[in-house]
Structures are given as C-alpha cells and as structure tokens.
Write a structure and sequence with these properties.
The protein has 163 residues and is mainly beta. The protein has one helix and eight strands; from the N terminus they run αββββββββ.
Amino acid sequence: MDRQLIGRLAIAAIAVAAVAATVVILGTGDDPAPAPAAISVPTTEVPQRAPDRTVTRTLAPTTSTAPAAPAPSSWQITYELTGSGTATVVYDDNGLGLVHQELSVPLPWSKTLTWPKTAVAPTVQLMGQSSGAVECRISVNGVLARSAKATGGDVVNCAGRLS
C-alpha cells in the first residue's frame, strides 16, 4: 500500500473514532423522563410572601469610558493548515463532530466557518497529513485556540472543546 492511502485510512479511522467518542460523551438523549411527583394540596392557607424590593447602588467609575463589547452571537472558526505540497484535510464543519474531508488540497490551506452560538461550547477538530512538515491552527473569533505540528507524513491533529 502506498503512504498516501495509509494516511487517508488513518485519518478516516480517527474521524470515525471522534464521532463515536462524541456519541458516547453526548449520549443518545433517550434518558427516561423522571416519574411525576405526587402533588399534595395544602390543608391550610399558604402565607403571602413579602413584596419584592429593589436595591440600587452606584458603582465607582472605571478608567475606561468605552462601553463593553456585546458577546458575539456566533462562533467564527478559522481552520489553517500550513506546510508545502498537498495534504489530506479532515475537519468538523458544524461543531457537532460530523467531519468533512478534502483530498489533495494545496498548502497553505484555510477555511473560516460561522456557527451559531449555543449554550454548550462546540468541539472543533482539524486533522491533516502531508508528505512534509505540517502545522494546524484553529482560531475562534480571531483568537488562537489550538495548534499542533507534525513532520514527514505524520498526521497532525488539533481538536478539543471550545471554552
């Protein structure tokens, strides 16, 4: 077998393992619903609660007069693979562990994706293999989140849950 085919098979195996791990971590969502609790009717009248109170305080002025930037409503994910020649690239294109593969892409390579902001930070994944040295980088909203390097035909892998 040639090295490129072995590399593709290794990347596919890693992708399958990543999807399987995601399913195990996230579960199937088929947890049974808890049994409803018995509702008892009070035999005496419930006392009224006190009215709500408003507390007001003045904060000391800060040294900066610029308003705070609002939290972004989406994740901007930038995948980068650097090196020379061509590479096989596998990346998560939606934050849910479902991977996309591109074959024989010229290096350097990059792709920027926008995912909707969710309550749970998504998982990012970028893998690449080239005949020479290769480096992967993942940036989130312009800030480097993950990076790794590999040499001569090894698979480079940048993966993890965003924080």
